[in-house]
Amino acid sequence: MRKYWPLSFFILPGLLMYVIFFVFPAISALGLSLTDWNGITPERNFVGLANYKEMLTNDPIFAQTFGNNIKYMLFVVFFQTLFSLIFAMMLVKNSRMNVFYRALFFLPTIIASISVAFIWIFVYDPSIGSLNTFLTKLKLDFLIQSWLGDKNIAIYSIAVVQCWAHIGQVMVIFIAGLQSIPKSLYEVARIEGATPWQTFRHVTWPLLAPSATIVVAYTTLQSFKAFDLILAMTDGGPSYATEILSLFLYHQAFNNYKFGYASATAVIFMLIVASITLLQFRILRANKVSY
Amino acid sequence: MAGVKLEGVAKHFKGAVAVAEFNLDIKDGEFLVLVGPSGCGKSTTLRMVAGLEEPTYGRIMIGNKDVTKLEPKDRDIAMVFQDYALYPHMNVYHNLAFGLKLRKMPKNEIEERVKMAAEILSISHLLERYPRQLSGGQRQRVALGRAIVRNPQVFLMDEPLSNLDAKLRVQMRAELVKLQRRLKTTTIYVTHDQTEAMTMGDRIVVMKDGYIQQVGTPEEIYHEPANLFVADFVGSPSMNFLEGELCTEEGCIWFKAQGIRVNLRNSLNLEELNENKVVLGIRPEDIYLHRPSPEKVCEELLCQTELIEDLGSEKIVFLKIEGQELQARLRDGAAPVTVGGNTPAYLNLNKVHLFRKSTGKKILFRGR
């Protein structure tokens, strides 16, 4: 090992970036979360765990935000996984048509999320939006909604957009997983008399477990950390109905100038994300398939 | 138990012929081997019997039932795949029981059948293990077990031994044959390995480019090959071939190639043949390097010895005559020869085969 030590200089630039832009802010956030800094004046007072106490016991908006996060996450994880799996199963064969459709479904992934947000703001517009116009044309007027204005459905409206934007990306992971299942296993199932559902239940799904775990892990984190889409579409409104943790801490810091409080939120947020990641790594390791 | 009948079965893939008209009657309890180089259509034929491919033309019967349009599950067959196709997430027991469970068999009967199959294949101690914890040979047994538990009318095996190492393959070969004799289940076995075909099959079907070249017992295939392809494909080392012409001299039929003259001492009507360009074939064991006993009718040729491969129980001697190569197989105890010298080689004329050069078809001698 000793003769390789000069090589360690090569990781220095990367390490430096990591320390400056991640380790240092993370540690200073921890320090800031114990103060009442407003982000502008140099004055800051040590307040101990007061920020945490306030947030966890006395801030209804934080509680609502956290609830929104969970709703958003569950919706996105469930529907994005379900539909990407359905599409993957439909497009698993490498025919020319399927390759075209895969590219088509993947397209939203490469569009900037701000653009995605604006496309869907138009779609959801209550008076001129294509969704409501479409529903009217179909004589389904009773389904017409103020998609982003109704506080009961706004979060789900955005979650649909999140799914739409990322289904293609997740579908690719499932296609790779499906293609790695040996064809002969399906042929055996066919000879043994398995119905399509039994084949899915006993062959495809168990062998897809590693891909599914990756997908669920990725989607959970992705939806938990959602930010730009919601910022651009509703900015957390109406009346905090679409405010999630990332947006909450942003608003605390840059609208309310409560940097100390925002830092405490960031620390909690980091802990949640870290524990989800850790849990999923464990599951992933348990779900390995070897042929 | 049931026989299998293929009537004019053909398979075309996007205009390309994978299997041309295939007609065969496989008897109940027979071990039939389909053999040929890759791409000859043997696997496609098997998969059509299985129902995994639909024939473009023709009819497939299992027993007295036309199964051409039936789903694989309704054909009462079991298939063993080259890659074993075991479910990696199920242990051996569940791999064996899976098909029976799908058929809603009562639990105690499943257990009984699995136990019996495991005993036959001596894998009873492996039932709790997962495929990844098994060796190649054990996995192969499990794959066979899965076929046995179903007690089907026909076993279909697609190169089931080709993923095993050489020694294990030889061992499993014998076990498979014994197993088949014991169960008396009609078996169609696909392989590209002519040794497997020769050692296992009651009958062999040699295929090439989608066409059947010959159907026969291993003995017929080896000793009476129907054409050049079969003669070349079966046997190791393969048959020696000399290209030349036939002509009549002094009332005898002669085979002549550059600098080589062989009096065939046999009656052939060359006019009937209306072609004199031929290929003479002779197996390595029918070339002797020392004078054989007089009852063997031989032709003597002077050759150079180029190389000797000593395999222990036998020696393969590489000979050269007028630019053409011959291989002779010497059994243990045969006279030793030295490399580089000239040696007389004796061709056993009773074992000589003649093929038309144009079509490769065998030319029959009269009286043989």
Write the layout of secondary structure elements.
The complex is a heterodimer of chains A (291) and B (368).
Chain A: H1 12-32, H2 50-58, H3 60-90, H4 96-110, H5 113-124, H6 130-137, H7 154-179, H8 183-192, H9 196-224, H10 228-233, H11 245-254, H12 259-286
Helix pairs in contact in A: 1-12, 3-7, 3-9, 4-7, 7-9, 9-12, 11-12
Chain B: E1 4-13, E2 16-26, E3 31-35, H1 42-50, E4 57-62, E5 65-66, E6 77-80, H2 92-102, H3 107-120, H4 136-149, E7 154-158, H5 166-183, E8 186-191, H6 194-200, E9 203-208, E10 211-216, H7 218-223, H8 228-233, E11 240-249, E12 252-257, E13 260-263, H9 270-273, E14 277-282, E15 287-288, E16 298-310, E17 314-321, E18 324-331, E19 342-348, E20 353-356, E21 362-363
Helix pairs in contact in B: 2-3, 2-4, 3-4
In short:
Chain A is 70% helix and 0% strand. Chain A is mainly α.
Give your account of this protein's structure.
The complex is a heterodimer of chains A (291) and B (368). With 291 residues, chain A is mostly helical. Chain A has a domain at 66-259: Orthogonal Bundle (MetI-like fold). Helices cover 70% and strands 0% of the residues of chain A. Chain A has helices at 12-32, 50-58, 60-90, 96-110, 113-124, 130-137, 154-179, 183-192, 196-224, 228-233, 245-254, 259-286. The longest helix of chain A is centred in the N-terminal third of the chain and has 31 residues, at 60-90. The mean pLDDT of chain A is 86. By secondary structure, chain B is of the alpha+beta class. Chain B has 2 domains: 4-233, Rossmann fold (3-Layer(aba) Sandwich), CATH 3.40.50; 240-363, OB fold (Dihydrolipoamide Acetyltransferase, E2P) (Beta Barrel), CATH 2.40.50.140. Chain B is elongated, with a radius of gyration of 25 Å. Chain B has helices at residues 42-50, 92-102, 107-120, 136-149, 166-183, 194-200, 218-223, 228-233, 270-273; strands at residues 4-13, 16-26, 31-35, 57-62, 65-66, 77-80, 154-158, 186-191, 203-208, 211-216, 240-249, 252-257, 260-263, 277-282, 287-288, 298-310, 314-321, 324-331, 342-348, 353-356, 362-363. Chain B starts with a strand and ends in a 5-residue tail after the last strand. The interface between A and B is medium-sized, with 19 and 24 residues.
